[in-house]
Design goal:
Helix content is about 75%, strand content about 0%. It is an all-alpha fold. The chain has one domain. Helix 1 packs antiparallel against helix 6 and helix 3 packs antiparallel against helix 4.
Amino acid sequence: MAIALVIAVVRAESVPTGTDLMLSVAAGLAGGIGITALYRGLAVGRMGIVAPVTGVMAALLPVVAGIATEGVPASLVLVGIGLAIVAVVLVSRIDDGGGGRSGIELALVAGVGLGAFSVLVAQVSDGHAFGPLTVIRATEAVLIVGVILVTRAAWRPPGRLLPAIAGVGVLDMAGNGAFILAAQAGALAVAAVLSSLYPVTTVLLATLFLKERVTRSHAVGIGLAVAAVACIAAGSA
């Protein structure tokens, strides 16, 4: 939130008011609920179900909204969108043993929340990204503090994790800011489906730094992701 505020000041963005303010608060609530449901689902459910269901739902909602409000993209872009959704499912698949609670209900809540977040932030006025993002982060902070107070959940992380947590915050803010600018510059459906390919980056980084094995489905998913990006880029040219 602090970094978004500084960037907003440097960019001379005005303070969000009226519709932009309401959209930002609503996006903060949707995003906060979505990410909390995702983490809870991953903790208590089957990762092999929660991750892909969340990813697909979070991609599909903005795509449907984008097509409804901005029209149907070119045929090649539609092919790319279809390939990307299949890629998200394949790359998000995790062999979790197949036992225990599925967590499907939390995955659906997470997918709807994150999808709604994308739809809402894409409606913010052109030229405004980090001002609304500051409001979004403030809303999420209030939401999380409220949940902690109500549930009396433990919240103090070990000190050794603080640098990593701060790094996650910076990267997440950068990703959200880039998505808002991308949605303003082009089609929401395209921006949403390309950003939904983030599991590909996760798998590649896990392979490089954590020495995790790339499964056959992961490899196919990565290949489809590359093809999807190529189709969307060619169709949008």
